[in-house]
Design a protein that fits this description.
About 10% of the residues lie in helices and about 35% in strands. By secondary structure, it is mostly beta strands. Strand 88 and strand 89 form a beta hairpin. Strands 32-31-37-38-29-30-34-33 form an eight-stranded mixed beta sheet, with no helix packed on it. It contains 16 helices and 93 strands.
Length: about 1350
């Protein structure tokens, strides 16, 4: 049996193959403009290992099985996750994964493939099926020809048979195509696989499980058991093969309507005319008339359709205009008051071009017309390509339309027709009587699905002269369906029921004017125009009359009973036989009686109330008949386009009505109004609008925000001074200064908060068009809100003085009750609260506008304190922190001047809780136990010198107030309280059996008036050894610095060799105190229990909390090694990880191997700040939709490529260099096109890229994988933490895991400027515990370190 696959019945799509990895979803656009389906991408990054390439997830665990990246499908060994290449049988199907020497290593092959031995294979190229990429076997239709593929070796696909007879007795030519007895290749238009164009396809089943055929649509031919002549006479003389040049070429051509529809329309001899247009802008607006073209630059008419055609190569087109990629046309249009200029380039330039102008296509379209040229005569065939049949569509025809004589309404159309990406080239209406009608853009086709036409009765619409001749014969026929020619292919739409087009006729029927409600009849003129066989039925509608009112038309006169209300009516004349169209005539019944008056209500509102003897029905009829309202000197239409509804349906006068965004009625002003209603006399009155409030989002200075919120605190809340400029502009991630605003980057000025205000109170302030514009702006700048907020402050302005009320809200406050402690040993001020368990307040997505700390003083009075973001309010990874200075610390450790005056009086008070104002409403937090605020004093010089375990130790700097009742407690490295230690004067002693180790002395006031504080000291054993280890230190640019000597004391067990403890031994670290303390705190904990063998070769960057101080940590490790009698490690390996080859000079943005933008980098400023923002970089507007897909390359001054990770955050690129420095770049598309980017060829680009340890520029596989690494989102959280450490000067132990993950980035922070360094630990790390041996040998060791290089 002969069965060439790809011609079978449709089947359900099977996605089981990749469903284990992800869902198949996204629709992507191919270069040809046609569409293909693509699967969602697997998140991760490539890494080269000893066992080959692996693809790692966020936890750096390798994937196994199928993955899908931007460059295609890959398969990873199930055992170890290594990349598969070559042939692989998976679940019974054969796949081929590209070896490194054939292309992108490991990429799954699809479509045609020729092996190095010259054999041809074909791999299933249908998307979103489980068989995609599998080698096909047996007979298969491909691009219209049938090929046979035979298995020759298990697991290695099936080779194409060529120039032979197949096992089932059929012949194939040298190109593998099935041929008949005459040697003619058999060709079929539809069905099978497609490689020449990627169109949206319907998957069809096959008789075996080795592949899945895919045609151009769901109407593929069924399989045939024997070879036969194809049903379509489309047999090219030279068949289409994968390796033979086609004899046809494909063009995109401007085809006049008459030529386009000539072969599509049957039974209609009238040509389809061009579209005449008086609305010149619409004919030249691509979004309205896409798929058409015009020749006249003024847009006076639409000439026809721009459509693909197929023509034999060598055809003479010298008489016609050729459009190339170099051609372009600028078209400026004004629609609805908006003027825009669009540049149409390349093939799009056909939009404004002459008849038969053409553009050569590089891809084979899935639909086209065949073009035959004979001299100057061009003949176009019917549209080729599989049509999609659409059923279930219902339709109606209306004989009344504002666009012509008839309008066709359809429901149930495919959703794709309404998509912005779908272009409609043309529509043909089909009738049961066998006549077709071609429809044209604008006049007949409006917004793709609205279809209307004229048959000679309506001559113009909207100033456009209509062309009726082609459509006149449609009257009296039955429409059965339509054909849509679209960019998604041809759609044959059949209506559920045929719809009749009623016959129109010439008539001038009218109702005589001047009729009044008090009359009993009125003449109806022109009824003699009704055809003789018109079976007329008369109905009157338009007003809600009671049942006593009845209208009758007899012998040219309309009569009525009862008392109809005044107003506009419609007389409808219908043909009961259904043959003719209905006639509708409007008329007015008027009255001299006025049924309404303007009435003021007690609540300040106004309405139209009934006059004496007027019924409720008459009032409703009057309101319904209102056509205009004059307010003051301005008249506003009540109906039609641009109408303003001032009188509501219930008769209420809307005093808040607006026109053009402004209130119509001025607040607190008497205003005259005049109301016009059809059939009624004019109604006049006077109204007064009440006080009108507006709700705005406003910048409120801290002092004004807190003025009415605080009790018993007259000291104003100041702005926040910031020496760290980045701190003030971190609102985008809501971790730092969200909810605040600033003038510039030197301080935070206040709160951006909802405000209720009188319109007149806002006149002295500036409004902005976007709430985003408030963030960096002046005091009292505001943005108008469209709705009433759930919380706000009320602005009161009197005699030039303004104030803001307490927060007003109808929401109930969220309440928490917690137990917490007050920390007095902090870096950011004098006191700090760190709290968890507060629900949304601990969420990073919550914006905190302000916080009030509630206290009670000694007199029992409540005293409140307003807190400000960054200096007082800080959120990071969950804990909610409040910190402040009371005057002891006046300058923060980042150089920021602290504002303490507002908080000085808190000393001696008891904190009872706080109120937080957030974007989730008000949060009230109560402390279960009040927190006393103790008095602090300077203890920076408080120290205990390290001493021998056999001696006592000297205390210095312990200068206590006279009333400080000191209590002393000593704890060991495990936090256990030690007994026997005594402090006498400036000396501390201990029992004789005390072991060597590190201890902490804590001093506290038993009266609880003052704060507690502590210091560490070391007790050293009797045996001491010393030594030094030289360390060369460089910064990120390779600059060497003077060295300094790191000195440590090492206590170790001489029996086991295990380290008991490590302590500083009077190291002179100069300005590097932060680095020294950070590294020492991290290392002493890690070194405990280690031996020499544990230390040798250890990379210190792997140690928790060393991030940012790697040079110091390495020095400590080598000093310890030397002290223990071992050689120190060399530095080259670790320094290689710390150093950067060169400073960045440029950031290049690539698209499709071309540089589209080059941004220069100020390396010195980047070094000084650690991060750099380059905002609003001008970029060609054509990249506005896909800028976030650019490939990012960073180069130094010599053009060497620098390692980086680039991610898209919000509306900008964040580029992170290997040393952790960060460059943020955003683009501006609002300017005219700026072609600053220099095109660089692929060869030039390869020369610019330096040899890299990570990526070989000659290796396309690495280039693809490096691009995918740049998309790895796993670094986002690490960057966020690094910023948090810089801006808030705090580090917490819960960040330990993050520090380990980003060690590569952090190990170079120490080598950058001191400003970019991470902060000292707020809570000192625990000292390592003493080892098992009770007798320790104390060792002192030193290592040389740079004083400036950290």
């Amino acid at each position: 049996m002969f069965l060439c696959r790809g011609m079978e019945e449709p089947m359900k799509k099977n996605i089981t193959k990749k469903a284990a990895v992800f869902l198949l979803s996204t629709i992507v656009a191919a270069q040809s403009g046609l569409s293909v389906q693509a699967a969602a991408l697997t998140e991760g990054s490539w890494e080269q290992t000893s066992s080959g390439w692996k693809f790692l997830n966020r936890d750096r665990q390798p994937y196994t099985g199928w993955i899908h990246t931007a460059s295609g499908w890959y398969y990873l060994n199930m055992e170890d996750g290594s990349l598969v290449t070559g042939w692989k049988n998976i679940n019974g199907l054969d796949y081929y994964f590209t070896p490194a020497n054939e292309g992108i290593e490991g990429q799954m092959k699809v479509g045609w493939y020729q092996s190095p031995q010259g054999d041809w294979y074909f791999f299933d190229n249908t998307t979103d099926t489980h068989e995609e990429g599998s080698a096909v076997t047996g007979w298969n239709w491909i691009d219209g020809y049938c090929y046979y593929f035979a298995r020759t070796e298990a697991g290695k696909g099936a080779k194409m048979a060529a120039n032979t007879t197949t096992p089932d007795g059929y012949k194939v030519n040298a190109d593998g195509q099935w041929v008949n007895e005459d040697g003619v290749a058999q060709y079929r238009q539809s069905g099978g696989y497609r490689t020449k164009a990627n169109s949206t396809t319907t998957v069809t089943s096959k008789s075996s499980g080795s592949g899945s055929g895919s045609g151009s649509g769901s109407d593929s031919d069924s399989g045939s058991t024997t070879p036969a002549t194809p049903s379509t006479p489309d047999t090219p003389s030279t068949p289409d093969t994968p390796d033979v040049t086609e004899e046809y070429q494909y063009l995109l051509m401007n085809i006049p309507y008459a030529d386009f529809y000539d072969s599509e329309v049957k039974g209609n001899d009238e040509d389809v005319d061009a579209v005449s247009s008086a609305t010149l802008n619409k004919t030249r607006t691509g979004s309205l008339v896409g798929g058409s073209y015009h020749e006249d630059p003024e847009g006076s008419e639409i000439r026809g359709v721009t459509f693909p055609v197929r023509v034999k190569k060598g055809t003479d087109f010298s008489s016609f205009k050729k459009v190339t990629d170099e051609d372009s046309v600028d078209i400026t249009v004004t629609n609805r008051g908006q003027t825009n200029t669009t540049t149409y380039k390349g093939k799009d330039a056909l939009f404004e071009n002459e008849d038969f102008a053409y553009y050569e296509l590089s891809e084979v379209p899935s639909y086209y017309k065949e073009l035959t040229v004979s001299g100057d005569v061009l003949t176009f065939s019917e549209v080729k390509g599989t049509a999609k049949n659409v059923s279930g569509v219902s339709a109606t025809v209306s004989a009344s339309s504002s666009y012509g004589d008839y309008q066709l309404y359809m429901t149930g159309l495919p959703e794709s027709l309404s998509n912005d990406s779908t272009t409609v080239y043309g529509v043909v209406i089909h009738t049961k009587e066998g006549t077709d009608y071609g429809m044209r853009h604008l006049e007949n086709i409006w917004r793709k699905t609205n279809i209307a036409w004229a048959s000679g009765f309506t001559e113009t619409t909207h100033g456009n002269e209509l062309s009726p001749y082609h459509y006149e014969s449609m009257m009296g026929q039955n429409i059965t369906g339509v054909t849509y020619y679209t960019s998604e292919g041809t759609m044959e739409i059949t209506f559920t029921d045929a719809v009749y087009v009623p016959v129109k006729f010439e008539q001038e029927i009218s109702v005589a004017e001047g009729a009044k409600t008090d009359d009993i009849d009125v003449a109806v003129n022109g009824l003699d125009a009704l055809p003789e066989d018109y079976d007329a039925r008369y109905t009157v509608s338009g007003q809600d009359n009671d049942d006593s009112v009845m209208f009758t038309v007899v012998n040219g006169k309309m009569t009525w009973t009862g008392s109809p209300v005044a107003g506009k009516y419609t007389l409808k004349i219908e043909d009961q036989s259904g043959k003719y169209a209905s006639v509708e005539v409007s008329f007015v019944l008027s009255t001299s009686n006025v049924p309404v008056q303007v009435q003021a209500n007690e609540d300040g509102s106004y309405q139209l109330a009934a006059t004496e003897n007027a019924s409720e029905n008459q009032v409703k009829a009057y309101v319904k008949s209102i056509t205009a309202v004059k307010v003051g000197d301005t008249t506003y239409a009540a109906t039609g386009r641009g109408a303003v509804k001032i009188i509501k349906d219930d008769g209420t006068i809307d005093l808040s009505a607006k026109a053009n965004g402004k209130y119509i009625f001025e607040s607190e002003k008497n205003t005259n109004i005049s109301i016009t209603a059809t059939g009624y006399p004019q109604v006049d009155g006077t109204v007064t609008a009440p006080i009108r409030y507006q709700y705005v989002l406003m910048n409120i200075p801290y002092g004004e925000f807190y003025a009415n919120e605080l009790e018993n605190n007259e000291v104003e809340v100041d702005a926040v001074s910031s020496a760290t400029a980045n701190t003030t502009h971190k609102a985008s991630d809501k971790l730092y200064s969200a909810g605040s605003y600033h003038y510039d980057l030197t301080q935070i000025n206040g709160v951006t908060y909802p405000v209720k205000a009188k319109a007149e109170d806002l006149k002295d302030f500036t409004a902005v068009e976007s709430s985003d514009n408030l963030y960096q702006n002046q005091d009292h700048v505001y943005y108008i809100l469209s709705e009433k907020p759930e919380y706000y402050k009320t602005l009161t302005s009197e005699n030039g003085e303004r104030s803001f009320s307490k927060v007003v809200t109808d929401q109930e406050a969220t309440e928490y009750k917690i137990d917490t402690t007050l920390n007095t040993n902090v870096k950011h001020g004098d006191y700090e609260l760190t709290m968890s368990g507060l629900g949304i307040l601990n969420s990073n997505d919550t914006t905190v506008y302000g916080t009030i700390l509630h206290t009670t003083n000694k007199a029992g009075e409540t005293v409140d304190y307003g807190m400000r973001v960054v200096e007082n309010i800080f959120k990071k990874k969950g804990p909610f922190e409040l910190g402040w200075s009371s005057g002891l610390m006046k300058v923060g450790n980042k150089g920021c001047t602290l504002s303490y005056e507002h908080y000085e009086s808190m000393i001696g008070n008891t904190i009872t809780g706080f109120t937080a104002y957030t974007d989730h409403g008000t949060i009230e937090v109560t402390f279960e136990n009040g927190l006393y605020v103790p008095e602090k004093f300077e203890v920076a010089d408080f120290k205990i010198a390290d001493a021998s375990v056999e001696d006592s130790a000297q205390i210095t700097g312990l200068d206590l107030p006279d009333d400080y009742a000191a209590e002393y407690v000593v704890t060991n490295a495990d936090g256990e309280e030690m007994s026997g230690f005594e402090v006498k004067g400036d000396t501390i002693t201990w029992p004789d059996d005390t072991e060597a180790g590190t201890y902490t002395l804590t001093v506290s006031d038993s009266n609880n008036k003052y704060f507690s504080f502590s210091t560490k000291f070391a007790l050293i054993g009797n045996e001491t050894q010393t030594g030094e280890a030289e360390v060369s230190v460089v910064n990120s640019k390779g600059t060497e610095f003077d060295n300094y000597t790191a000195k440590v004391s090492v206590v170790y067990d001489p029996v086991s060799g295990k380290i008991v403890s490590v302590a500083d031994n009077a190291t002179d670290y100069g300005d590097n105190d932060d680095f020294w303390q950070q590294a020492l705190d991290a290392m002493v904990s890690w070194l405990k229990g280690k031996t020499v063998s544990d230390l040798k070769g250890k990379d210190v960057t792997e140690i928790d909390d060393v991030s940012g101080a790697t040079c110091t940590a390495k020095g400590i490790k080598n000093a310890v090694l030397t002290a223990l009698g071992a050689e120190p490690d060399t530095q080259s390996a670790e320094l290689a990880a710390i150093m950067v080859s060169a400073a960045p000079a440029e950031v290049k943005f690539y698209k499709n191997e071309e540089v589209v933008k080059t941004v220069e980098v100020d390396a010195d400023e980047l070094d000084a700040l650690g991060s750099l923002e380059i905002l609003d970089v001008a970029l060609d507007p054509k990249y506005e939709e896909d800028w976030n897909e650019f490939t990012v390359v960073v180069v130094d001054e010599e053009g060497n490529e620098l390692e980086n990770e680039a991610t898209v955050v919000d509306d900008s690129f964040t580029v992170i260099l290997a040393d952790g420095r960060e460059i943020v770049i955003s683009f501006n598309f609002d300017t005219e096109e700026k072609k600053a980017a220099e095109e660089v060829s692929a060869a030039d680009k390869a020369e610019e890229v330096s040899d890299s340890e990570v990526s070989d520029p000659e290796d396309t596989e690495n280039e693809v994988k490096e691009e995918e690494k740049a998309d790895d989102p796993s670094s986002d959280e690490e960057n966020e933490d690094a910023d948090a450490a810089d801006d808030q000067d705090t580090e917490e132990k819960e960040d330990t895991e993050e520090a380990e993950d980003k060690s590569d980035e952090s190990e170079e922070n120490e080598d950058s400027t001191e400003d970019a360094a991470s902060d000292d630990k707020e809570d000192a790390l625990e000292v390592p515990e003493v080892g098992e041996s009770t007798e320790g040998t104390t060792v002192e060791e030193t290592e040389t370190l740079s004083k400036d290089g950290e």
